Fold this protein.
Amino acid sequence: MTQIKKFLKYLRYFFFEIKNPITFRFIYASEKIMEFMVISINSLFHINLPKIYLLKKDYIIKNKDGSWKIKAMSGSDIAVSSVYESELYKYFNINKGIFIDIGAHIGKYSIMVGKKNVIKKVYAIEANPITYSYLKENIFLNRLQKKIIPINLAVSDNTGNLNLSFSINNLGTASIVEDNTGLIVKSARFDDLLKEQNINADGISLIKIDVEGHEYNVLRGMSASLLKIPAGSKIICEILPNQKEKMKILDYIKKRNFKIEMLPTKNDYLFTKIGKERI
């Protein structure tokens, strides 16, 4: 999808799919049009003009997928639009069991799946404490407190503490780093988390992993669970094309008898359990 085609889809979303009052939609769309222009000018002339924000206080967006409390000037609004990662929607159309959302951000997929009556439970896991606060708000806004369990934690291959780096203007890019960034978050292995939350691995239908480069560590921490989740269960995992551990991830998951499929985004893979571990 070219940038122009994508922007036209966003325009349709801004004006026709958002269910807020027309005044808000006009202001919001104006902000996004100016943002697109600034990004285009910066790219064309290799400069760094700042983005222009008209909405400087937190606001709520209502669309077909739910209601969303958005931190102003954070970029989180685009993540809950119908255009963003639209190619992935059908892979979240599960009809049973438990969904575990690792890197839940402000709750887009947790809430989309949680609204399905056939889903038993959703565990929405988010490491960034600021983002996590909006995740909890959005669970409440959509009246899913009894269905979705929010957990403020970094999933990894060890239990302890990790350093988290993030931009206040782009909450979706929080990542685990080696350097001390000043923000220390608790971490736990997925296998230990299941025990703590009393989750039976054989009831899991879908796991989503989107942790900005920490995916291999997450998978290493779920070695026991990968044995127990039933055949047919799926993992949607982000792996960026230039991610240094890409081949390690694919080899690791293949050895545990998962079928691998690259998804249309080119940044995400679908792992489907096809039987018992072969190691």
In short: The longest strand covers residues 160-167.
